[in-house]
Amino acid sequence: MAKRNTVKSMILTVVFSVISVVYVIPVFMVLLNSFKLNTFVKTATFAWPSGEMFAGWANFIKGMTFGNYPFYKSAFYSLVITLLGTLLILLFTSMAAWYISRVDSLLCRIVYFGCVFSMVVPFQMVMFTLSRTADKLDLNTPWTIPVIYLGFGAGLAVFMFTGFVKSIPLSIEEAAAIDGCGPVRTYFNVVVPMLKPTLISVGILEIMWIWNDYLLPYLVLDINEYRTIPIHIQYLKGSYGTVDLGATMALILMSIIPVIIFYLLCQKHIIKGVAAGAVKG
């Protein structure tokens, strides 16, 4: 029996190692080509950037200074949208999940299943109506678009938070109420500390999603005034629509490195939070 388990473990290790390599290859190719001259990105995509192919830091400099829109503004808007959107999602969805879990009413069930159902609705079904609505409600700036992200991110967040809150003993909150805590103090002083694993995991997932999102900011924001990093990369075009692939690869690398580092540092919290939220559904 032990031998069979060892063989099974070895097979799974090999399979998942191959899958990991397949996922890493695109990132590695972006890294290689970010240091090549534009011509060799097209003709020698898989070659090592050496000799006459090597562009040094020229691609990074060109990518950050190309056109009349500075890269630092795009990085700033991406950071603002990501942080505000994530904070709104964590605060409001955790509150909603706590209320849904503790108040067993028909309305709460409808809200919960509505949030769950929203996860299966493709963004393409609502994007045109959403764009028009955002313009009418003045949600087309980096300071207001997080409200839209709150709507789209609520489904997964409420689902995960609700599952975790149901595993928290109600007696802890009752004890807090006996000690004089109202709903607000109970939430922030009692519930939030226990929600930490799920808060971290949901926060990481939302940050990765919002930071890399291209379509929603492109549809909602005024791209002449506000550009996120994915939109900035899209506009690395010269005359007649030519694209400097070396500079594009350099900016793509700069945009994914922070997310990769952030994910590697916090991946254990994702696994812990998802497992905790799946204890009870």
The secondary structure category is mainly alpha
Order of helices and strands: HHHHHHHHHHHHH
Q: Note poorly predicted spans.
A: none
CATH-level-2 architecture of the domain at 72-236 and 257-277: Orthogonal Bundle
Structural description of this entry:
The protein has helices spanning 2-33, 38-43, 58-65, 71-102, 106-118, 127-136, 145-165, 170-178, 183-194, 196-212, 215-220, 229-234, 245-277. It is built from 13 helices and no strands. The chain has a domain at 72-236 and 257-277: MetI-like fold (Orthogonal Bundle). The longest helix has 33 residues, at 245-277. 30% of the residues are buried. The protein is mainly alpha-helical and 281 residues long. Helices cover 73% and strands 0% of the residues.
Secondary-structure map with pairings?
Blueprint: H1 2-33, H2 38-43, H3 58-65, H4 71-102, H5 106-118, H6 127-136, H7 145-165, H8 170-178, H9 183-194, H10 196-212, H11 215-220, H12 229-234, H13 245-277
